[in-house]
């Protein structure tokens, strides 16, 4: 069962939502929401949750009870600067969207999401990535455009399934040599990066078939 309440300008989530315990898809995007009730943890059958385009500054710990979330979790275009630690239990989640929030660092909870295939965190204020990022062994796409990264940790070289990394618009001064070790990397996007001198080993990536946008 799907429940789509997109752009209804609700202001708050109606109590009736929490009575529909069998829903698998819940869309609450673009509703001027400032909080999500703790009762969201009761929706045990959710596979996809869209909370984008609201005014959320925090999320309840009960969100981590939704261990059936496996398709998408949209949190984009809010005012989030942190995530509850309980989200580390969402180890079946495949897609996480954190675009256009207020994150200055990514919580370690994300590193528990070992099922992630794609993660988007563009247009934030990120300055660093946790070393535990390298534990996301299924990750294929990492989108980090328009943040404040000066460098990226060497642990990114452990992401053996990574195909695409977008670093556009960051003030990078160095790249981790471990990028050379990524056997499936197809695209490295460095456009709008004016602070970086490309290292010589970039040629090795290109020779292997990786497209480097510069």
- Write down the CATH class: Alpha Beta
Number of helices: 1
Number of domains: 1
CATH homologous superfamily (4th level) name:
Ribonuclease Inhibitor
Largest sheet: 10 strands, parallel
| Radius of gyration (Å) | 18 Å
What is the succession of H and E elements? EEEEEEEEEHE
Summarize this structure briefly.
It is built from 1 helix and 10 strands. With 214 residues, the protein is mostly beta strands.
What does this structure look like?
The protein contains 1 helix and 10 strands. It is mainly beta and about 210 residues long. The protein has a single domain, classed as Ribonuclease Inhibitor (Leucine-rich repeat, LRR (right-handed beta-alpha superhelix), Alpha-Beta Horseshoe), CATH 3.80.10.10. The chain has a 10-stranded parallel sheet with strand order 1-2-3-4-5-6-7-8-9-10. Strand 9, helix 1 and strand 10 form a beta-alpha-beta unit. The longest helix has 6 residues. The model has no long low-confidence stretch (mean pLDDT about 95).
Name a few traits of the molecule.
mainly beta, Leucine-rich repeat, LRR (right-handed beta-alpha superhelix), 10-stranded parallel β-sheet, 10 strands, elongated
Write the layout of secondary structure elements.
Elements: E1 2-4, E2 25-27, E3 48-50, E4 72-74, E5 95-97, E6 118-120, E7 141-143, E8 164-166, E9 187-189, H1 202-207, E10 211-213
Parallel strand pairs: 1-2, 2-3, 3-4, 4-5, 5-6, 6-7, 7-8, 8-9, 9-10
